[in-house]
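Late entry, written up from scratch paper. The run itself happened at the end of the previous shift, but nothing got recorded in the book at the time, so transcribing now.
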Amino acid sequence: MNVPLDAVLSSAAVAAVVGVAGAVVILALARRRVVVAALAAPLVVVLSVTAGVVVGAGSMLLTADDLTGILLVLLATVPVALAVGALVAARIQAASRDAERAAAAAESQRRIEGQRRDLVAWVSHDLRTPLAGIRATAEALQDGVLTDAAAAAGSIGRDAMRMSGMVDDLLTLSRLQAPSVALERTEVDLGDLVSDAVAALRSLAEAAGVQLTGQAPTGVRAVVAASELRRAVGNLVMNGIRHTPQGGTVDTTLAVAGDSAVVSVADGCGGIAEADLPHVFETGWRGSAARAGDAGAGLGLAIVREVAEAHHGSATVRNGTGGCVFEIGLPLPG
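Output as recorded:
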């Protein structure tokens, strides 16, 4: 059977037009949904061949039965085309997920390395103050300028404790920021944990002339890293004591909100500038000039955030009446 050249050309042209149109559609889909485009691409091939056969059927002297048979064969290829498209789409999805995970891991590593460099810089800077105090006191004792040994020992002891606290904070934050941190978790009563954290700072608050109040009812149980969470609550209370003027109050409460437990610490610091609120939990943040004179390297609130996030919770702050309200949200078991 001799098939006219023009019939072949017309069939090929129709197949090409359908194929090009399908390719345009696939490209448009790919810009939005690559997986759908990969799934549809093999169907375009089947559709273009089918269009070419249908157009050239008359010139090829195909009977209705012949055309039906060919179309059935082409129809049978649709599941195969879909299977191939699904396989390609699955491979694309897997590659995309792998790329996203790799990018996220690289970004996390860059962030952690940057934070560690900042930590070293901040702590190195802040360690100079107590070190300078210890050195000055020691030299004064050696030169005979300072004769009160008990006072000198007290000064050196305070500076040494300050340095110890900075190093302890640095090690804790570095451990919490490790990519594969694994905290030891146990089931505890959150009310007892919060009460213990507040009680440990009561004498310090009394020395500062700050009253500690609040309510932490027992019976709210959760599986947590008790030591780290107790430290986070203590950091918030300590932060409140430092920034609340003498005669003020730091109020600590525990409440259940939906499927979460919320530890709130309200202080009398006078509030934080709205522009600074998003940065409060950043490593080394101190904010105003009044806060810049604090002991420590600005790591306490960063530790709070890391502990909360390690429990799949959150750490937030907002301005309240006369001060700030810091909150740690912890998911409760269902």
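The CA atoms of residues 243 and 291 lie 8 Å apart.
(Scratch paper discarded after transcription.)
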